[in-house]
Specification:
Helix content is 30%, strand content 17%. It is an alpha+beta fold. β9 and β10 form a beta hairpin. The protein is globular and about 90 Å long. The two termini are 58 Å apart. Its EC number is 2.7.10.2. It catalyses: L-tyrosyl-[protein] + ATP = O-phospho-L-tyrosyl-[protein] + ADP + H(+). Belongs to the protein kinase superfamily. Tyr protein kinase family. SRC subfamily.
């Protein structure tokens, strides 16, 4: 398309209008850029209006337009109106004045306006030159605006997923999926490229093809201590690595590498122009190029990168199914075997459609049904990786049921069984996980009231989750008084709660200190040899459990802080989390620099 064609279209295709538009553009260019204008006699003269404006500018006086300028501006205003009407007639709307590009980029080289600054009708010319061609003969577009591609975006599966309902789509890791519903919400409607089947998929199980998120070594937002724990697991070897978002520097990354029995960390910095480097002498255009380089050669790192770290668990879905069912038909549930019993009911392993779940049902007479439902209402609102996730409830018939994710065992069973050989550092790390979940409750202004090892569940990968919110209540004021006759475990309960029925988040901190003794003694009951009455009396008199055998003194100091008589002087769960993480954190807080290699 040439510019003459566009102007003919814009001005309605009349030759006289074309001349007037060209003249208006030349006047506009002369006025804006201070160029010389030829008089009719051909003698170069400086425009009088231009001289007047220059003098006014030089003397800092307001410019008063001359009559000739007023006429030109009036004509230009009419031309703008014609250009706008012409654009609307052809379904092309010129951009707003504030959004107009500073440089006139899309103009034909043959156009007489190629060197001119933008005029009032140039945006129309620019728009037409981009979206379609214009016939110089008829003045109408020969094609419609180029439509956007209808090809659905392609995603790659990061994990295996087994469909939980008939509407879900099962897929395997690395399978390619086309997203069909615009990527809205936590569940997307997708089609498998390999099978052609369609269904709903959890959005956090997939990543855009060829993106950083799709790389097997990229773990996104992960704490350094979590990276160390993962890399030191038995399934990872010397040289295995991962890349995670930097905790302290926005837009930067951290490279964590297993080096024998330790983990080294390196900062990956981003340059202003978009490149990446660990050592300034060796920059790379992209992050994958950087990783590929260090997989072939250590080049100053502690070791050449081997394989990406193994992922030990799939992420939780935002809801159990895409339609987020709350009340489900109990006929969809199958109870297989009883795996536990608590204050409010029994816990069973079961199946819901195709998924393994835990089903908690109320024992007759064990508690009020309203309390049972309150537990479900609270759990439903929580979303944290250290809290047990609630899927659904059955409340229309007896017994009442709560459906949750299934875990292997509770913390007491773990400590007395397969976790018997866990190191003190590993025990402290479990304590940090629990503190992280309690910090979330603290932030949400909730209390647990029954925090103990029996209510902490452990997965096969030794990650833990806080369960049994049967006594939890939202704090609408700073604190509240418990109902008369309510039951609570004496040996885990803070003295102000046990003696005066007053609970705050600080009473949970006391209970957490008792839980730490369960950890370091591998599941032993607290206050061994003492009755509940003796515990109440002795604690009120200032008695505190002595340091357990084999417990580091620094860890015992944390316990004593949790048991401070003044609740306000007990630490927050956020403080407890970082104290436990730092207690046995490797290599201090420093990151390594790539050594010079020759």
């Amino acid at each position: 398309m040439n510019c003459y064609s566009a102007v003919r279209l814009t001005a309605g295709g009349k030759r006289g209008d074309l001349r007037r538009l060209l003249a208006a553009s030349l006047v506009s260019r002369s006025r804006r850029w201070g160029g010389a204008q030829r008089s009719p006699s051909g003698v170069g003269q400086t425009n009088g209006a231009q001289r007047s404006r220059v003098r006014a500018r030089d003397h800092r006086l307001p410019h008063r337009p001359s009559p000739s300028e007023t006429n030109v501006q009036s004509r230009l205003a009419r031309r703008r109106l014609w250009a706008t009407e012409a654009a609307e007639a052809t379904h092309f709307r010129p951009p707003a004045e504030s959004n107009r590009p500073r440089r006139w980029a899309a103009v034909s080289a043959r156009s007489p306006f190629a060197s001119a600054p933008p005029s009032s009708f140039h945006p129309v010319v620019e728009k037409l030159s981009v979206v379609g061609t214009v016939s110089s003969a008829g003045g109408v577009p020969t094609s419609t605006p180029t439509p956007s591609s209808n090809q659905p975006p392609l995603f790659v599966a990061l994990f295996d997923y087994d469909a939980r309902t008939d509407e879900d789509l099962s897929f395997k890791k690395n399978e390619l999926l086309e997203v069909l519903n615009g990527m809205q919400g936590d569940w997307w409607y997708a089609r498998s490229k390999s099978t052609g089947k369609t269904g709903y998929i959890p959005s956090n199980y997939v990543a855009k093809e060829k993106s950083i998120d799709a790389q097997p070594w990229y773990f996104g937002k992960m704490r350094r201590i979590e990276a160390e724990k993962l890399l030191l697991m038995s399934m990872n070897e010397h040289g295995n690595f991962l890349v995670r978002d930097s905790e302290s520097r926005e837009n930067d990354f951290s490279l964590s590498v297993r080096d024998g029995s330790t983990v080294k960390h390196y900062r990956i910095r981003q340059m202003d122009h978009g490149g990446y480097f660990i050592a300034r002498r060796t920059p790379f255009a992209t992050l994958p190029e950087l990783i590929e380089h260090y997989r072939h050669s250590a080049d100053g790192l502690c070791v050449a990168l081997n394989q990406p770290a193994a992922r030990i668990e799939n992420p939780e879905t935002a809801t159990f199914t895409y339609d987020d069912q709350w009340e489900v038909d109990r006929r969809q549930l199958r109870l297989l075997r009883q795996i536990g019993a608590g204050q409010f009911g029994e816990v069973w392993e079961g199946r819901w459609n195709n998924a393994a779940v835990a089903v908690k049902k109320l024992k007759p007479g064990s508690a009020d049904a309203g309390d049972f439902l309150a537990e479900a209402q609270i759990m439903k609102r929580f979303r944290h990786k250290r809290l047990l996730q609630l899927y659904a409830v059955c409340t229309k018939d007896e017994p009442l049921l709560i459906v949750t994710e299934l875990m292997d065992e509770n913390l007491v069973q773990f400590l007395q069984g397969r976790g018997r050989d866990t190191s003190m550092a590993g025990l402290a790390e479990i304590g940090a996980q629990i503190a992280a979940g309690m910090s979330y409750l603290e932030e949400k202004n909730f209390i647990h009231r029954d925090l103990a090892a029996r209510n902490i569940l452990v997965s096969r990968n030794c990650t833990v989750k806080i369960a049994d919110f049967g006594l939890a209540r939202v704090i609408k004021e700073h604190e509240y008084e418990a109902r008369l006759g309510a039951r609570f475990p004496i040996k885990w309960t803070a003295p102000e709660a046990a003696n005066y029925n007053r609970f705050t988040i600080k009473s949970d901190v006391w209970s957490f200190g008792i839980l730490l003794t369960e950890l370091v003694t591998y599941g032993r009951l607290p206050y061994p040899g003492m009755t509940n009455a003796e515990v109440l009396h002795q604690v009120e008199q200032g008695y505190r459990m002595p340091c357990p055998q084999g417990c580091p003194h620094v860890l015992y100091e944390i316990m004593l802080q949790c048991w401070h008589k003044d609740p306000e002087r007990r630490p927050t769960f956020e403080t407890l989390q970082w104290k436990l993480e730092d207690l046995f954190s490797q290599d201090g807080s420093d990151y390594k620099e790539a050594a010079m290699s020759y």
